């Protein structure tokens, strides 16, 4: 987390990855300001940018930030980019955090899944008498000021978005050398900001842990829809009606049971008409729903970071037990047994 370097030295200075959705955030930020992002950054977007679980080397991420900051003549790009982040840019972890009851539960889950959000130097989370402390060392290298400032600004912005509150930290510390002016940092974080410290630190009052969270937003749901579509893309090519029904089932599952009536309404037709179309093509709605949810369930179970309760909710089951019963009917195994066998 030192001052910007370039080339091979920057590669050696930091190890790890960030979500490829961060890269998409930078492309969107540049395009909103009228720049050709590919020309500015001198490379096409990462192949996984539109996949919420993609990973991007932090050394390359640093170079993209440096190129964008130079083109924009903006040494505060880290602050500006971080404050423009949305839950969707956190990938699947954005859904997980939004599903928590309060900020404290979200931070505990963030610590559990931190490698999905920022897999460079590990986050340490501790509760002191007068403050909660989130802390990052330098054991895996120093990604640089722009990387660090983007990450911390994004984390604070995420807390503000999740709670709908100002979320004022008590103190923010960076390991990087001090910039020319501290005022923009104090203005954004609303607290004292220190540089040249041994660790990057975010400190805030314990009372903020009880802040309730808001419901998921449309951008996050759109991200999950893209993930579901990508999974469905791995299936053999079906006819248009079957594909449309499968897509609706996958999308509507996150809002509850994907019934024939709900799918028909989403496709702007009646349940009877949809039933007839599927029947003419040799399909029935229940069979498509079962096979689609089974396929999605198996893909989710291959990711050890997702808990069974989260998978059940993504698939539209009211309870984890209902999901487990359905999965046993589909496969003859419990979800945990299937997950164990698939990891061998």
Summarize the structure.
By secondary structure, the chain is of the alpha+beta class. The protein has 18 helices and seven strands. The longest helix has 19 residues, at 145-163.
Structure description:
With 344 residues, the chain is of the alpha+beta class. The protein folds into two domains: 7-210, H-NOX domain (Alpha-Beta Complex); 233-342, Homeodomain-like (Arc Repressor Mutant, subunit A), CATH 1.10.10.60. Helix content is 53%, strand content 8%. It contains 18 helices and seven strands. A five-stranded mixed beta sheet has the order 3-4-7-5-6. Strands 1-2 form a two-stranded antiparallel ribbon. Strand 5, helix 10 (183-189) and strand 6 form a beta-alpha-beta unit. Helix 11 (218-232) crosses helix 12 and helix 13 (260-266) packs across helix 14. The protein is globular, with a radius of gyration of 22 Å. The protein starts with 6 loop residues before the first helix and ends with a helix. 35% of the residues are buried. Residues 1-12 and 47-53 have low confidence and may be disordered.
């Amino acid at each position: 987390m030192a001052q910007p370097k370039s080339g091979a030295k920057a590669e050696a200075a930091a190890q790890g990855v960030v979500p490829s959705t961060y890269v998409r955030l930078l492309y969107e930020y540049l395009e909103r300001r009228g720049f050709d992002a590919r020309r500015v950054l001198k490379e096409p977007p990462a192949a996984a940018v539109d996949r919420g679980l993609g990973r991007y080397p932090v050394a390359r991420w640093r170079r993209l930030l440096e190129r964008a900051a130079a083109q924009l003549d903006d040494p505060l790009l880290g602050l500006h980019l971080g404050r423009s982040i949305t839950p969707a840019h956190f990938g699947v972890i954005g859904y997980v955090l939004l599903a928590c009851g309060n900020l404290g539960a979200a931070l505990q889950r963030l610590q559990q899944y931190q490698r999905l959000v920022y897999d460079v130097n590990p986050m340490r989370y501790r509760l002191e008498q007068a403050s909660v402390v989130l802390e990052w060392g330098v054991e895996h290298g120093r990604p640089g000021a722009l990387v660090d400032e983007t990450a911390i600004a994004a984390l604070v912005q995420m807390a503000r978005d999740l709670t709908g509150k100002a979320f004022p930290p008590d103190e923010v510390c960076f390991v990087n050398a001090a910039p020319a002016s501290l005022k923009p940092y104090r203005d954004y974080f609303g607290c004292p900001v220190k540089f040249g410290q041994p660790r990057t630190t975010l400190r805030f009052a314990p009372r903020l842990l009880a802040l309730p969270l808001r419901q998921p937003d449309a951008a996050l749901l759109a991200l999950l829809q893209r993930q579901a579509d990508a999974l469905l893309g791995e299936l053999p090519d079906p006819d248009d009606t079957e594909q449309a029904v499968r897509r609706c089932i996958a999308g509507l599952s996150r809002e509850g049971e994907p019934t024939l009536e709900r799918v028909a309404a989403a496709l702007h037709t009646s349940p009877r008409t949809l039933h007839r179309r599927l029947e003419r093509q040799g399909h029935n709605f229940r069979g498509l729903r079962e096979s689609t949810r089974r396929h999605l369930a198996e893909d989710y179970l291959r990711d050890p970071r997702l808990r069974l309760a989260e998978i059940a909710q993504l698939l539209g089951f009211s309870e984890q037990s209902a999901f487990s019963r359905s999965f046993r009917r589909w496969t003859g195994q419990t979800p945990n047994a299937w997950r164990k066998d698939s990891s061998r």
